[in-house]
Design goal:
DNA recombination, mainly alpha, three-stranded antiparallel beta sheet, 10% strand, Tyrosine_recombinase_XerCD, DNA polymerase, domain 1, 400 residues, DNA integration, hpI Integrase, Chain A, 51% helix
Length: 400
């Protein structure tokens, strides 16, 4: 059985004041939890384990000591009730970890984990969002029980009204906070009884997304575009390859290699979820691929990543973002040149495929083309573009 008591440690600080600590003893081994308070040795009552009344702040310090001692005893009893043997250092960890791992400490750990996994883009996104939350909270340390429904609602209002973020972007911030909190509960850094999200607490509400893709006529305008600069035509070729292969993501398009094309099929592994993809090469894609094959200097179909080390995830991600921005600028000019009023970007290739497929392809087949893990995801995504039934129902009512 472990014992616990308050003591005055023997090593003074630069001002010759001694630290007050909570001592844990088990199996003749000791460990200390420091309270952050320092006093003169003459002002310590060793028998009572408290500050003498002669100290000007005796009442406040003693209340702090008793509070910490009570909390430590509660956590000690909980730690000792575990079936497995725990050393004195393990018991100390159980006692102090909820104080040590505040919310922003958990954020630091998650950022490090993302970096270790090579998810540099995700790390940067999370860091940016949590920096704004920290600035709003006006504190470098925020205990989990301080993240209340009221705080979350005020932060949401701050993002929308003062920063001017859109609803969906605001929701992404709240999801990031919830994710960190869930990780902390899983790691036993936070207790579930303080959890502010979900039923009866703060609810994250999603608005229906507005995904707009090009129609057949607009894609034909792109296919037959004339008078483009070489850079604009190159950006358009990348867009068309993405569209022809069921809207594969720009990061995957830029990383395509000639060795990925075997027996008239494209075989590659998706960067987002590492799933294997195998697609027939559409006839419309062949002239574009033949053109780049005639220019090929290495295994890359497109040369933007030619000198990038594929093992350096951070540099690779940065380069892909830079190329995507450049392509999007060219695509915007192409849309203006062709009189296309819709926003044209690399990601719109995926929406355009969804828009044109509409209700023409069975949902299970679309799931395979999109490589969604669940058909529910495909249904939700495709619902943005499947409008024929709704239009027919409207006509049946009003056309009398």
């Amino acid at each position: 059985m472990a014992s616990i008591q308050t003591v005055l440690r023997n090593k003074p600080n630069a001002r010759l004041l001694y630290p007050i600590a909570i001592r844990i003893t088990k199996d003749r081994k000791t460990s200390y939890i420091f309270t952050g308070q320092y006093i003169d040795k003459m002002q310590w009552n060793q028998q009572k384990g408290l500050v003498r009344k002669s100290h000007p702040d005796a009442t406040s310090i003693n209340q702090l000591i008793l509070s910490k001692l009570s909390e430590a005893n509660k956590r000690l009893l909980k730690a000792e009730s575990e079936k497995e043997y725990q050393s004195v250092s393990a018991i100390k960890t159980n006692i102090v970890k909820k104080d040590r791992f505040d919310f922003f400490s958990a954020v630091k750990i998650q950022l490090r984990r993302l970096e270790e996994r090579g998810q540099f883009h995700q790390r940067d996104v999370v860091k940016s969002r949590m920096d704004k939350f920290k600035a709003f909270a006006k504190s470098d340390k925020l205990h989990f029980n301080e993240i209340t429904v009221d705080l979350l609602k005020r932060f949401e209002a701050y993002l929308k009204n003062e920063i001017g973020l859109a609803h969906r972007t605001t929701i992404n911030y709240m999801i990031a906070i919830r994710t960190i909190y869930n990780i902390a509960i899983g790691e036993k850094w936070a207790e579930r009884n303080h959890y502010p999200f979900g039923r009866g607490g703060y609810t994250i509400k999603f608005l229906e997304s507005d995904k707009i893709g090009l129609n057949v006529e607009e894609v034909k305008l792109l296919e037959n575009a004339q008078g483009l600069t070489p850079s604009q035509q190159h950006a358009l070729n990348i867009w068309l390859i993405s569209f022809y292969f069921a809207g594969i993501r720009v990061g995957d398009v830029l990383q395509l290699k000639w060795s990925d094309f075997i027996d008239n099929r494209l075989r590659y592994r998706m960067g987002k979820n590492q799933k294997l993809v195998s697609l027939k090469i559409p006839e419309k894609a062949k002239p574009i691929l033949e053109y780049y094959k005639s220019l090929a200097e290495d295994n890359f179909v497109f040369q933007e990543l030619r000198f990038v080390d594929p093992k350096d995830a951070k540099i690779l991600r940065t380069r892909i973002k830079t190329v995507t921005r450049t392509c999007n600028r060219h695509l915007k000019k192409i849309a203006e040149h062709l009189g296309i009023s819709k926003s044209l970007s690399m990601h719109i290739a995926r929406h355009s495929f969804g828009n044109i497929s509409g209700s023409k392809i069975p949902i299970q087949m679309l799931q395979k083309l999109y490589r969604h893990s669940s058909v529910t995801t495909t249904i939700m995504y495709q619902s943005n573009f499947m409008q024929d039934d709704v239009d027919d129902a409207l006509d049946n009512v009003v056309n009398f």
